Amino acid sequence: MNAFPDADRLKNFPAQVEIDDIIHVPTGQKIPVSALSHFFDCASVFYVGETHANKASHQAQLKILTAHYERFGSNLAIGMEMFTRPYQPFLDQWIAGEIDEDKFLEATRWYGEWGYNYALYKDILDFAREKKIPVIALNASKDVVTMVRTKGLKDLSEDEKKLLPEIDTSDYFHGVYLEKVLPGHTKGLADRERFHTIQCLWEEYMAQTITDYLSSWEGKGRKFLAFVGNGHIVYDFGIPKRVFRRTFLPYCTIYTTEFKGGKPSAEQHPFLPEIPLEPADFVWSITPYEPEPEKKRIYLGVQFQKRDDNKLVIEKITPKSPAQKAGFMDGDILLSIDNRALKNIMELIHYLQTKQFGDICIAEIDRDGTKITYPVTLFEFEREEK
């Protein structure tokens, strides 16, 4: 089904679209950022989509946040997909200035759970902290997602169902979108249904979080900015429709999309011919994502056993590596580095990339029940090919 050819729908856009142009989708009119303030007043919830790895998306979000603050002061809140609900206390401590950035990233397990470079989000979270703007953890916990991914919705126990919000999987165009845009996540009918269910779980969970906050004593009357992936707001059938179903509050959506040569990129085209809906209230043209220049990565020089309990048990040490120079031995369990408890290998890898060659880290290991602390000097070495 091709309801509208995408080329025809683009004819309503200006002939020339430059980077950072904001286009009002219903009229095709370009508007300045300052003109968005007219929509701030009438919208209780303002959704600004992002391409997670593209800095330009987050710069657009920061501009919207700054403009909201100039108009409403601290009478607003920010909801972020990147954090799951169990980490709300640490977000509160961050905003209150009670913990520093290192502790914040460790407590929220940023690199273990979200994984994207924190520098992409740092300006937003620093601004929120400076201005004391609440940041709300929107997403479902990993345990809840794993439970639904493993059992599906129909096979959950009554107690397990009580952990979930109302979940609607019936939107036809939502299913079309997922099959069209995210084919790499699905292989076969069962896989497609499972992925569709998980997508709906994420969106219903975030919608319920927004609803709960706006109906609470601390959230009532606040403007709410939702910073989430583009796929959760495009065509409204993700989070916006689900919040509206619960609240009937007015809202506005901005879809940040990469433009190349004055046209939207094929990967992020806002008009899919299979979906006869407007993608958003506004499209914000951003620069295409360009990966940062590859830099030499920092490693300790160890290989870990594959274990179900995620303990970092050293299986092999690379000769002439930082780990060998420090005195690590096969069978050692790496407990922490620079007083950071390590939950998994990815947390170690991401933390090491924040360091520089020549830095000294303090590693704590468990060797046959005895805890030992080693200073580890990080340096470049020749890694063994696997």
Automatic annotation (TrEMBL):
Matching InterPro entries: Cofac_haem-bd_dom (IPR007314), PDZ (IPR001478), PDZ_sf (IPR036034)
A Pfam match: Cofac_haem_bdg
Domain (PDZ) ranges: 286-345
SUPFAM superfamilies: EreA/ChaN-like, PDZ domain-like
Protein's recorded name: PDZ domain-containing protein
Organism: Candidatus Brocadia sinica JPN1
